[in-house]
Amino acid sequence: MMPVDYSRFFSEDVPSFLRSPVREIFRKVDLGAICSFAGGYPAAVTFPTEHIPSLVSSVLEKYGTKALQYGDTRGVAELREQIAKRYGVPVSQVQITTSSQQGIDVCTRILADPGDIVLADNPVYLGALQSFRAYRAGVVPIDEYSAGLGRAKFIYVIPDFNNPSGKTLDLSAREALVRKARELDVLIVEDSPYRELRYSGTPVKTLRELAPERTLQLGSLSKIFAPGFRLGWIIGPEELLEQIYVCKQCLDLCPPVLDQYVTAEYMASGLLDSNLAGSIAEYRRRRDLMLSLLERFMPDGVEWTRPDGGLFLWLTLPESIDTVALYDKALDAGVAYVAGSFFYTDGSHRNTMRLNFSFIDEAKMEPGIKLLSELIRDAV
Amino acid sequence: MMPVDYSRFFSEDVPSFLRSPVREIFRKVDLGAICSFAGGYPAAVTFPTEHIPSLVSSVLEKYGTKALQYGDTRGVAELREQIAKRYGVPVSQVQITTSSQQGIDVCTRILADPGDIVLADNPVYLGALQSFRAYRAGVVPIDEYSAGLGRAKFIYVIPDFNNPSGKTLDLSAREALVRKARELDVLIVEDSPYRELRYSGTPVKTLRELAPERTLQLGSLSKIFAPGFRLGWIIGPEELLEQIYVCKQCLDLCPPVLDQYVTAEYMASGLLDSNLAGSIAEYRRRRDLMLSLLERFMPDGVEWTRPDGGLFLWLTLPESIDTVALYDKALDAGVAYVAGSFFYTDGSHRNTMRLNFSFIDEAKMEPGIKLLSELIRDAV
């Protein structure tokens, strides 16, 4: 049999596929064996694990085989109702997605052609960058856009506790964004996976609240329930959701049905809220510990964000330090992070890094930050 | 606030999105209230419903929070191993998908550009047609292709108990297909959701077995476990799976994790096989009942397939009957089917229809076929 050269079969999108450097790290290194601030996993201790069997049983009692059958492409009614109630929108404006990543992907698919421009956070969430690139859309930092670069289709932003930067946009920044969207006549994709994880400060109005007519707001159950369920949602104008609905028929027909009923039950029973209070307390403690460790161990010239929520801190090191080059050394020493330049479309900012404080064993935080501080001190 | 005309934001793919007429029927009519042979749902009685709670509990005992966390993009190792073992392939050739529909979609995405040609069954599975169209690929019946029509990228076929036709390709037809694929130098996407549901006759070699070097074989848990889990798989050459893996990072990061562990447990415990034996007996009985009812009630000039497996029968009525035009009348009378022309890319064959025998209440089969027979008799 002749060996087949498969590359000649691939679509023109394929060369633009971007591998997640984070997932590549996971493939190669057992992060459990070292002090890893890489990845963006929530803490397993926040999962309502002990409630899952009874949630499943009560769903099967209530809904029977309906919970195991194909479901509505828009999502099961009970979950859409829970989301609608929680966020104060009509059910008709809620589409359940098979993960928030699917939300990003399907929004990009219905909106962007090759060469179109997405105006994005800079640095930008990697999963979003992967989707934009995979559709061969250009990605331009919001402030650097001019019409000559191509047709802008939407602004993509994580306004609350940004991944990777940890920053939150204040009201005036959000209002400016909305003005910009209206001025450029583009839509807004507001990615809100962390919004409910606020540890300090006061909630700011969402972009959807400021500009409901042009915002698709993405939500995720991964940080307020468990990522293993792969469930998220999109809230937006019905005319946009209608196209997403049709597109989703091709993607996977409908989101996982039993998982949706279990989630609806988790929300309706009040378990989500009681569990969330515990998660917030847990993450607040971790954030505070992380900040105090950075304060204690980091050499002069290193700066970091102080996030009011979410899962990430962003470090800026002295210009002379290259976090990409430092990476293998760090792994050898027993500490992992994600180089900040991966989150920049131009690969710049090689003196930055993203640190996650949600997933690492708390006992490893101090040795990890100590190790990292020493590496940085040595590299200056 | 100015009303927004959203159509101007849409990508060039959007006008090619095809709504599933089946899903549209479901949206408008309560099929539970009538005799519905539409849809392609498996019988709820085949779901191992009573085992789900204990499967979930045993998975959580074994794997703990790992079953609720993010997982490997390729699928959890335990499920990949079960699939690999069942079908006699290395684990490295197995990618778990979030539904077999996602399998179709991701294969199309990595292979087809707008204007490329997919050589397909004729009639063809609607979900596949939706994906091909959504990527603006041309769809040409396998026997009608010539190079002038565009660049052919792959052959898409359901060789076992085809949806919608109910037909199975014999070995010589499969060998001819493989020769054609090699001659045209195209890949084969072998869609096999029903292969394990054989009620009579002898299994034929799969296209993957005949041409492993150029076949992506799609499998589904929907008919041998339950569709609510939205799980499927792709078996294929590693070089192709590698691109699917990278693409899947954008699509949803990973398939639902708890569902995958539950499925792996269902397979490893032997439950799948014992349950499958029951499903096959159930469906065989339904198929035989359906065939005998057609024999008894259908007027002369109506022909149908006698499938050896799967969920569907295909009816060919006298040329003068238009099943699209007949449809509203049928709904009013209390019986539903899917017009056959929906499965033809050119909308032809308006004298055909697809009947599903797996989902309808058995008690409704006789009145349903009687009603349908009368409608057809009146329409001749």
In short:
Two copies of one chain form a homodimer. By secondary structure, chain A is α/β, with parallel strands linked by helices.
Comma- or semicolon-separated keywords:
homodimer; 380 residues; alpha/beta; four-stranded antiparallel β-sheet
Give Rg of chain A in angstroms: 21 Å
Oligomer: homodimer
Strand elements of chain A, count: 13
End-to-end Cα distance of chain A, whole Å, is 56 Å
Strand order of the largest sheet of chain A: 2-8-7-6-5-3-4
Series of H and E elements of chain A: HEHHEHEHEEHEHEEHHHEEHEEEH
Query: Which two protein chains have the largest interface (Cβ within 8 Å of the partner's Cβ), and how many residues from each?
Result: A-B, 81 and 81 residues
Q: How would you characterize this protein structure?
A:
2 copies of one chain form a homodimer. With about 375 residues, the first copy, chain A, is α/β, with parallel strands linked by helices. Chain A is built from 12 helices and 13 strands. In chain A, the strands form 3 sheets. In chain A, strands 2-8-7-6-5-3-4 form a 7-stranded mixed beta sheet, with helices on both faces. In chain A, helix 5 (about 125-135) links the parallel strand 3 and strand 4. In chain A, helix 2 (about 50-65) crosses helix 9 and helix 11 (about 325-335) packs across helix 12 (about 360-380). Chain A is globular.
Blueprint of the fold:
2 copies of one chain form a homodimer.
Chain A: H1 21-28, E1 35-36, H2 52-63, H3 77-87, E2 94-97, H4 100-111, E3 117-120, H5 126-134, E4 138-141, E5 152-157, H6 171-184, E6 187-191, H7 207-210, E7 215-220, E8 232-235, H8 238-252, H9 257-268, H10 271-297, E9 303-304, E10 312-316, H11 323-333, E11 335-336, E12 338-339, E13 352-356, H12 362-379
